[in-house]
Design a protein that fits this description.
- By secondary structure, this protein is α+β, with helices and mostly antiparallel strands.
- It has 4 helices and 4 strands, in the order βαβαβαβα.
- It has a 4-stranded antiparallel sheet, covered by helices on one side.
- The protein is elongated, with a radius of gyration of 17 Å.
- It starts with a strand and ends in a 6-residue tail after the last helix.
């Protein structure tokens, strides 16, 4: 299992969601609002006001997926969530030692 996290521009989320829907084995995602700023070497604020308000709105996407669909998910993010400018975002993948999808543990259980 892998955990895929990405920071993307808000305007790119609808397109990315549609691309994910076409991926076989896509397990779903969690989306959170995030704010951040570029590294100082990539963006030099021109004045104090800009320096203090340098944060831009982003979305953080988190996906836990089987190894066999990880590359397809990362490729979909990279191909559909960038516009070729500083601030496009970031994608990273980490190994998951164990994950339990809760809906699978209760399927067929009536709760009685």
């Amino acid at each position: 299992m892998k955990e895929i996290k990405a920071i993307i521009r808000p305007a790119k989320l609808p397109l990315l969601r549609e691309k994910f829907r076409t991926l076989v084995g896509f397990p779903g995602m969690t989306v959170s609002k995030a704010e951040g700023c570029s590294a100082p070497s990539l963006h030099s604020p021109s004045n104090l006001k800009e320096e203090l308000t340098d944060y831009t709105h982003k979305f953080r996407i988190e996906i836990v997926a089987p190894d066999d669909v990880c590359d397809s998910i990362v490729d979909a993010i990279v191909q559909n969530a960038q516009i070729g400018q500083i601030g496009d975002g970031l994608v990273w993948v980490t190994d998951i030692e164990r994950a339990v999808f809760l809906y699978k543990t209760v399927q067929g259980d009536t709760g009685r």
